[in-house]
Amino acid sequence: MTYADCSSIDDMIHHILHGDFVAGLISGLPELHLEQYLNLSSSTVVSLRSMFMAPVHSTEIVHGTTEPSKSSQDLSLAVDAAIVRLQADGKDKEAKLNNMPFEFTVIHTCRTDDPSVFITPNSAAATGLLRTALDDKSLKVGASGTLRLGRQ
């Protein structure tokens, strides 16, 4: 099989059920109506999640954005500072408890005992995508996957 033959989780499960694939790996669980046909097992592998943002163009980052309004420099500083503070306050563990049976593993890629070392940009002087988010009072983030709430 080629990648073109498997462009979605549904395609992969179709190929597993028809014997084309021996197994498949997804992040999360298959749709409820398909679980009865599959043997599920946790890989016990931690799958890190990342948020990708456009860097500022430079000689080192030639693929970066040249439009100042699309720069993520201030936004990435603000996101890092927010994540570190949430982790320091235990909000990540609180989110786990509020979303059981969510399997949660603590991974601090920005671990610090002093969150103040992650400086939050001054909102009045914010630029690029952070300026847009503050002005519009919204932050649009794309994600891939299926959200299923209330699952037991």
UniProtKB/TrEMBL annotation:
It comes from the Eukaryota. This is Uncharacterized protein. It comes from Prorocentrum cordatum.
